[in-house]
């Protein structure tokens, strides 16, 4: 179990959709949905391990920590939504809901969703780690080479997130 996850937040969290990665991860931890992998190397190991875990729907999401060459706390989170159970929990549905129930929920949501106008804020979690100018260095983030013939390192959407512990 990762001692840096606030399990109290997961315990008191309702089954409402999560808008915060920390709260979501705490909920997944509490539900037993996280596989911790320590010490995997970003160049050749993380992408292969993720590929293995993606092959079967319902496998746990994977949280890579202690990545060689990166400061403690710089982690990679992958396979976030590769199970119906996690998708249901993420959307605020009962965890044991079926695929058909999930599709029905999604169709209803898409028909009824209201636009929310943007609001400019002066502070928030998004602004905790801001870099500008010469301080920007994407190689400080442990972005993996996902496949051996990839031309570089890619940050995807949905399947992967890089984050440092707060």
Describe the structure.
With 166 residues, this protein is α+β, with helices and mostly antiparallel strands. The protein is built from five helices and four strands. The chain has helices at 7-12, 21-30, 46-54, 84-91, 99-112; strands at 34-38, 61-65, 74-78, 160-164. It has a four-stranded mixed sheet with strand order 1-2-3-4. A hairpin with an 8-residue loop joins strand 2 and strand 3 (74-78). The chain is globular, with a radius of gyration of 17 Å. The two termini are 17 Å apart.
Set down the secondary structure blueprint.
Blueprint lengths: L6 H6 L8 H10 L3 E5 L7 H9 L6 E5 L8 E5 L5 H8 L7 H14 L47 E5 L2
Distance between the termini: 17 Å
Number of strands: 4
Numbering strands along the chain, what is their spatial order in the largest sheet?
Answer: 1-2-3-4
User: How many separate helices?
Assistant: 5
Shape: globular
Biggest β-sheet strands, sense, barrel: 4 strands, mixed
- Rg value: 17 Å
Strand content: 5-15%
Based on secondary structure, the structural category is alpha+beta
Low-confidence stretches: 1-13, 159-166
**Oligomeric nature of the chains:** single chain
Order of helices and strands: HHEHEEHHE
Please tell me the overall pLDDT: 84
Count of distinct structural domains = 1
Helical content, roughly?
A: 25-40%
């Amino acid at each position: 179990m990762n001692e840096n996850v606030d399990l109290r937040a997961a315990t008191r969290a309702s089954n409402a959709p999560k808008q915060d990665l920390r709260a979501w991860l705490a909920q997944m931890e509490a539900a037993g949905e996280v596989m911790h992998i320590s010490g995997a190397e970003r160049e050749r190991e993380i992408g292969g391990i993720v590929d293995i875990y993606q092959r079967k729907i319902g496998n746990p999401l994977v949280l890579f920590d202690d990545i060689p060459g990166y400061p403690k706390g710089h982690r990679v989170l992958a396979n976030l939504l590769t199970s119906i159970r996690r998708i249901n929990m993420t959307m605020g549905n009962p965890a044991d809901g079926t695929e058909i129930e999930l599709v029905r929920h999604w169709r209803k949501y898409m028909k009824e969703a209201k636009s929310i106008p943007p609001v400019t804020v002066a502070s928030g979690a998004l602004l905790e780690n801001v870099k500008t100018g010469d301080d920007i260095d994407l190689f400080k983030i442990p972005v993996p080479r996902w496949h051996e013939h990839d031309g570089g390192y890619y940050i995807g959407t949905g399947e992967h997130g890089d984050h440092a512990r707060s």
